[in-house]
Amino acid sequence: MTETRLRFPPSPTGYLHIGGARTALYNWLYAKKTGGKLILRIEDTDAERSTQESIQGILDGMKWLGIDWDEGPYFQTEFESDHEAASKKLLDTGKAYKCFCTKEELDVKREAAQKNKTQYGYDGTCRSLSAEEVAEKEAAGLPFVVRFKVPDQDGEIGYDDKVLGYIKAQYREIEDFVIVRSTGKPLYLLCNVVDDIRDRISHIIRGSDHMTNTIRQVLLYNALDAPVPVFAHMPLTLDTKKAKISKRKHGEIVAVQFYEEKGFIPWALSNFLVLLGWSPGNDTEFFTQDELIEAFSLERINKTNSIFNYQKGNAKFFTDPKAISFNEHYLRTMPIEDIAVMVKPFLEKEDLWDAAYEGDKKEWFLSTLDLTRDRFQMLSDFGDRGRAYFSDEFTVEQKPLKKNVLKHEGLKEWLPMLADRFEALADYNLETTEQTARDLATELDIKPGVIINGMRTVVTGQLAGPSMFDILMAIGQERVVSRLRNVAKLYEV
Ligand code: GLU
Q1: Where are the domains of the chain?
Q2: Residues in the chain where the model's pLDDT stays below 50
Q3: Which residues line ligand 1 (CB under 6 A)?
């Protein structure tokens, strides 16, 4: 069997969209599954809209997601001579022709069709110009586009879509479409095919919004005497109101970079995205990379549109709550050493990183991450909600401050008392600290909860978290004593 060759050809006109990332993932998975290659090709021929920043963003986004490619990045602009050669070949072989119709002429015909409520399609006026007529018009300097000459025949043209089955159109329904603009620039439809032929692409997995292109591109493959690749069109990703997920409507959550900045684990996002539009045929949700490569198949790509359940959920921002729950899952179950590597940049950003976390304090660091991760959703939470573990400067959240501290005037004295007793402990451990706290509550005739919740708020700034006595161990005797002793400060505002 010949090698499978897939490609991801983004247009660098913006950020890496999560829909684009899903397309890249499907192509990547299929390349891996079949032992084939993934080619990254930047379709940068739209000079006005393509930017270097966008190219960088796409490359960074793919690297962050772990989608590696085997060839490229190639840049479409490097192959302009191929595109021109192909249009010349089509002209020379009579499979395309120069069309001198002006915009105004075409507009009149389009309007007439609209009035008559008939479907507009180019009527082929220039199709039958003689070589002399063409030469005359060219000599007169008239601008022209190049149109593909759709075979003048009855019957249908089609292709076998791996997802949607046989897709066809009547030759008579397809107009002679433009392949080269009047500026001499070949259009996407042609360039894309020429590049795919040159790159020997065997399979094309892309969004179903490209289906109208595909049928015309099949004609181009035939006209260029090239084998038609296997096509698989994936469903679009829509929100619950059936609108396409877009920056204008949904904001920055459409960009892969947003998830990186928020503290997503790349594989959590990938795993979530793959399941938007593909299913394993059972209810397995979490896959390792190898498992997903093994399970992936084009046939199981969904035929119906995928729903991105855009809503607030239990995170601070809107996105699909399922994406958040995937992140929680990986955050809580991945090897802690892997989490540590991913947390590092977030702590660095908050100025909380200590090189000793990779040296002397490594054990403490790993156990602290392990202790706290069960309640966290994002990698960024460690430097945010978890700040009190890494710094003495942290904010005490309003809710626990009011509920667990300010409401109990007595804590102003009780917590410093507890601080003295903790300081005096020769052996500061889980049991001795718990016993000390409970004894104090009994002596003072107050509920242990008042002491424990007050202590949690003062020591961590948070309403909830891991077991209080585990926290006391993680934060350590000295820092706990000092925080408890300074409780009065919290009453000042
Ligand atoms: N540059 C096109 C896009 O980003 C490529 C489409 C394709 O052929 O896959 O939509």
Answers
A1: 5-71+191-238, 85-180, 335-387, 395-492
A2: none
A3: 9-11, 43, 192, 206, 210
